Amino acid sequence: MSGRQFGRRQFIDRVAKTGVALAGLASPLLGQEAPKPAEGETKPAEPPAPPPPPPGARYALPTAATGEIPCGLCPHGCKIKKGTRGKCQAYAHTAEGKLESLGYGKVAKLKVEQIETDHFFHVLPGAQAVFYGAPTCNLHCSYCSEWRISQFPAEKVPTQPIEPKALVDHVAAQGGKLLGCTYTDPAAAIEYAIDVALAARERGLYPITHTGAYLTPGPMKDYASVLTALNVDLKAYAETTYKTLCEGSLQPVLDAIKAARETPVWLEITCLMVPGYNNTLSVVKDMCKWIAENAGPATPVHFIRFFPEYKHRQYQTASTDPVQLKSFREAAYEAGLLFAYVGNVPGDFGESTLCPKCSEMLIRRVGTNVSAVSFDPHRGLCTHCGVQIPGIWE
Ligand code: SF4
User: Is the dihedral angle over the CA atoms 13, 17, 22, 26 positive or is it negative?
Assistant: First the structure.
């Protein structure tokens, strides 16, 4: 059986056939990360142009009799007094009595990466994507690898001002197809995330997002409706662990997943397995059962190997045992899920896609080296048994 390279080869193939690639990446806008402050440093960068005026918060609720503005965007449900901000530090109650997004149009990190690095395995395998992240986040994960841009107020994070159309124009001008929001959460500037996704769709691009889904069902559904693909971090399957790991709670995330499922968006789920916190096999089994029943058996689930970052370096948390990841993958299959993967273990068999009907290897992955084996990427079919494989393939 001959393998077909999805990585650079398919990239070149796509340029030739469809013009879809991010060749060159010559734009000063693209392929660059905003400069990061050193640890503990919060010096803002000098912006090259004035940022767009902050818009009103889309999910602000009517001002209460107390003068507070309730924010309906996420389950924290902040009631924000004049002159203060929400828990995320991204929405402020201004002197004029409005709730404003502080992160609109501000990009803290912008980078071109292969789609697999963001744990999308059923979306244009091997393709390059432009990923961006706005400053701050509404979750406070103790292992956040992007804590320098996620855990500071918006104005203390170095950013580049980029209008949605400018971001989309640069991706399109270079033949890119995928424009993704990641690094921090789209909840950090949901109005911007929605505008970027709408602008991307208008240009025929695929807007995708990786999120903690710490959103109330209405905003989650609104946002998922304008996306092509969504990857949700399900950080644990126990309320206490959610609180401990990210100062959030589980049930709202489950509700958000169900809300996203009511839209046509392509959904994948990522679980970073943190030893001593969320890696109990019986709990993982329950989680997989919930995913199969509520998100659907065709939802790919990724069990990611944890390496200590941020506060977990001080906690000296161990990295995940790859053998345990294998048992989680088996638990997913036993629960009825059709696609289960391991991540952060380059070369592991569990990175590859198997046919749920005949078990042939469809797509082989060794890190970012991706190749089709028994798979027709144009029609999304297993070439061995002919079954249709769900995903976004063209
Ligand atoms: S998005 Fe921010 S301001 Fe709104 S409820 Fe969540 S944490 Fe509070």
Answer: positive
